[in-house]
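TA notes, week 10

Several of you asked for a full example with nothing omitted. So below is the full record: structure tokens for the whole chain, then the designed sequence directly under it. When grading your own attempts, check the secondary structure regions first.
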């Protein structure tokens, strides 16, 4: 006779759940949040004025945009939906759910600042995906720390998983230049996705894999 676990969707939590417990310790979403937390956002926060309703912090909205773009989600509606449907997005959004209008207005309002900040975030994120990042800094000293983990798994790679890759200053500069071009393309792509129900398009990890192969 088979024995099955009971299906129970009604019993509440005995203790309040914590979003910090929802993801593996080395998940990419945690790394995105950590990098965004280190950014200087005073140019954004200083432009807000007092109102009756508290606004979402730019750090939270920027984190949603960044994690959306590195996983191939561009449209504001899909980002809003992901804040309900995806455990990783719920973690980035601190279990909050900014609506799509809020996300779109934030992106348009701070477009120049966001483009610059995206490069600051994506350099360590993509370097981490390639396995050439020491915590907080890109390894530019020739240390061979190419990783073997798969970016699509959503996990931080083990920096000691391989013995045959090094990142030079010249290569890092090329990566940054390419990222600037990519970000300049991502913003109109996001706006187009908001204006029409079209496929979200490019995935940053897929693009990284293609360039790394090249």
């Amino acid at each position: 006779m088979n024995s099955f676990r009971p299906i129970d969707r009604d019993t509440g939590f005995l203790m309040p759940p914590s979003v910090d417990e929802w993801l593996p310790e080395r998940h990419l979403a945690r790394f995105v949040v950590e990098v965004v937390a280190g950014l200087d956002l005073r140019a954004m926060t200083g432009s807000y004025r007092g109102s009756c309703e508290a606004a979402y912090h730019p750090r939270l909205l920027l984190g949603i945009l960044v994690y959306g773009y590195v996983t191939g989600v561009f449209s504001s509606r899909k980002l809003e939906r992901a804040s309900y449907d995806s455990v990783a997005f719920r973690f980035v959004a601190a279990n909050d759910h900014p609506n799509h209008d809020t996300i779109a207005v934030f992106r348009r309002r701070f477009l120049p600042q966001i483009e610059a900040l995206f490069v600051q975030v994506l350099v360590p994120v993509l370097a981490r995906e390639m396995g050439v990042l020491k915590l907080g800094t890109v390894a530019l000293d020739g240390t061979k720390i190419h990783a073997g983990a798969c970016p699509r798994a959503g996990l931080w790679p083990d920096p000691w998983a391989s013995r045959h890759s090094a990142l030079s200053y010249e290569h890092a500069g090329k990566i940054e230049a390419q990222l600037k071009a990519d970000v300049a393309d991502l913003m109109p792509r996001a706006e187009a996705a908001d204006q029409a129900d079209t496929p979200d398009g490019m995935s940053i990890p897929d693009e990284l894999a293609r360039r790394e192969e090249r």
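The longest helix spans residues 169-195. Use that as a sanity check on your answer.
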